[in-house]
Amino acid sequence: MPRSSEVDSHRALGMLQAGLPISEVSFRMNVNRTTIFRLRQCLYETDTASDRRRCGRPKCTTQKQDRNLFRNHMNNRCLSASASSRQTSGRNDQRISANTVRRRLSTSGRGARRPYIGPTLTQRHRHQRTLWAQKHAAWDRIQWRSVVFSDESRLCIDHADGRVRVWRRSGERYQADCVREHGRWDGVSLMVLGWYLLQ
């Protein structure tokens, strides 16, 4: 059963102090009678409604080791969880698993995602794109009819592109160290071009 929040615990205790029976409080809070009974017992024994400290297996890494783990993945965005687990030791020089690395990075808001493949945008590029978007923000459908929207896709023939992941937070897709740069004409490839004209 999930723990009651601190607000709900204080609300239930307020009802008990107002003289309501346990059955009535449990009905109003939509919880089991035993939950309210144990909450009252906890208040009598410890003078607080906070949860007691519970036993459990301690984390295999310290906070300092977790910070080092985050720093390593910020310095090398393409570092895999398996490689990171081999480089990082936990408490008492204990080996940690790749799943532990993934969990630590996930709790910090980082996830393994496919990198944006293309040229790195400089500050000048970003400024010019912002100006272009602001200039055309008020265009209507008739004005857009004179514009052809095109896109191209390159299919590699002589080698595989590979499967690379970068560890990043949400909103960091186009950040310089999250972009995988590539040569435009390296290797044998097939270019497919398509376009669309607004009707």
Automatic annotation (TrEMBL):
It comes from the Eukaryota. Pfam families: HTH_Tnp_Tc3_2 (PF01498). GO terms for biological process: DNA integration; DNA transposition. One of its GO terms (molecular function) is DNA binding. InterPro entries: Homeodomain-like_sf, RNaseH_sf, Transposase_Tc1-like. Residues 66-137 form the Transposase Tc1-like domain. This is Transposable element Tcb1 transposase. The lineage of its organism: Eukaryota, Metazoa, Spiralia, Lophotrochozoa, Mollusca.
